[in-house]
Design goal:
It is a single chain. The chain has 362 residues and is mostly helical. The protein has one domain. Helix content is 68%, strand content 0%. The protein is built from 17 helices and no strands. The longest helix is centred in the N-terminal third of the chain and has 27 residues, at 7-33.
């Protein structure tokens, strides 16, 4: 069944993709130039870093939003098989490829096998997010029939509380020694469980299922949405400055609130624009490929002479996105290329009223 494509998703997917690459570029820029002194340049980049923390959570929202809009009550035959094929195959291939970048010249057969297995089995590289998305695909096969009967006024607050409590536990409780691999679990292992992102799933479901009602709500509450976004961003920065949540991560317990504010803001502002610009559509269509490939460029691109922290960060951002798009285009010309670096979406600016929604991870 044909369904009207949501123009705002072009924007959200593209901006979330740019946010993820921005975060990684800033990390590389600061790591390369940081001298131990928090200069105005460092603070400036950290402000952008904080603003971009909505990126990864937004992809969870997008995946469930599209699923709920296309399949609010049930999924078609072959639903999971198709998604596993187009997500898990590139995940495995890129997990092996990234092993070479992570180990560098010190690579041995033993270290290659160990690192590759870590990347593939527990998502120990940049594409760990795919394992999370697959969990939500499974949830969407069974949970919507219960969510459909329940009230969002109950489910959304409950899922938010559960989400925040889960993230708070790993932020404020020291690793429990009795738990095997506790250090790794507290460092990054807890990212992989769906419970740490469950609010974005329920939010995506209810907004996707009743999108027209959500758009009406946005129109009536524009000023509140703008204020909500400003307050939420100040909260993220403020909690970092006062040392309550000193790290900058999308896994902080305050990020579900911030991400919700930014999602609402993007939907509100872009809902007033009839067609997304070509650049936004381009980034949106290549978002999955950029997500998979951009770190390869960040691993290898060195600064040019006379660059500083900010110019190097911009240099990384531009080249990693451009390089990812070019590489994905070339590899996708192979018959099996989409199974290596991900399929490229082919959705145009003028297809808003005739293109079916394609639920994708990014």
């Amino acid at each position: 069944m044909k369904k009207k494509l949501v123009n705002e998703i072009f924007w959200l997917r593209a901006l979330a993709c740019l946010a993820v690459v921005t975060i990684h570029s800033i990390q590389k820029g600061i790591d390369y130039y940081f001298t131990g002194e928090n200069t105005p340049m460092v603070y400036f980049l950290h402000l952008f870093y904080a603003a971009a923390l909505f990126g990864t959570p937004s992809f969870v929202f997008i995946s469930e939003f599209l699923l709920a809009k296309a399949y609010p009550s049930g999924v078609p035959k072959g639903f999971l098989k198709k998604r596993v094929k187009f997500l898990l195959t590139p995940f495995i291939f890129m997990g092996i490829i990234y092993t070479f970048f992570e180990l560098g010249a010190s690579i041995t057969l033993k270290s290659f096998i160990i690192e590759s297995l870590k990347n593939i089995l527990i998502g120990d590289y940049v594409a760990w997010f795919i394992l999370l998305i697959l969990q939500f695909y499974l949830l969407h096969m069974f949970v919507p029939k219960y969510l459909e009967k329940a009230s969002p006024k109950v489910i959304l607050p409950v899922s938010l509380i559960v989400n925040v409590l889960y993230l708070s536990f790993f932020k404020f409780v020291q690793p429990i020694q009795a738990i095997p691999f506790h250090d790794y679990i507290w460092e990054r292992g807890y990212w992989l469980l769906a419970i740490g992102w469950i609010f974005y799933f329920t939010l995506g479901y209810y907004i996707g299922k009743d999108f027209e009602a959500f758009k009406l709500w946005l129109k009536r509450n524009g000023k509140i949405i703008l204020l909500f976004a400003v307050v939420a961003y100040c909260m993220v920065v403020g909690l970092k400055l006062v040392g309550i949540l000193p790290d900058s991560s999308s896994k902080r317990p305050d990020i579900p609130i911030y991400t919700t504010a930014i999602i609402c803001l993007i939907f509100y502002l872009t809902g007033k624009i009839k067609l997304a610009p070509s650049f936004i559509v381009l980034i949106s269509n290549y978002s999955f490929n950029i997500y998979l490939l951009h770190m390869m460029f960040l691993y290898t691109i060195k600064p040019l002479p006379h660059m500083n922290m900010i110019t190097y960060t911009l240099y990384l951002l531009i080249l990693s996105i451009t390089g990812s798009i070019i590489l994905a285009t070339v590899i996708n010309k192979l018959p099996f290329g989409k199974y290596l670096v991900g399929n490229i979406l082919k959705i145009g600016r003028k297809q808003n009223n005739r293109t079916p929604n394609h639920p994708k991870a990014v």
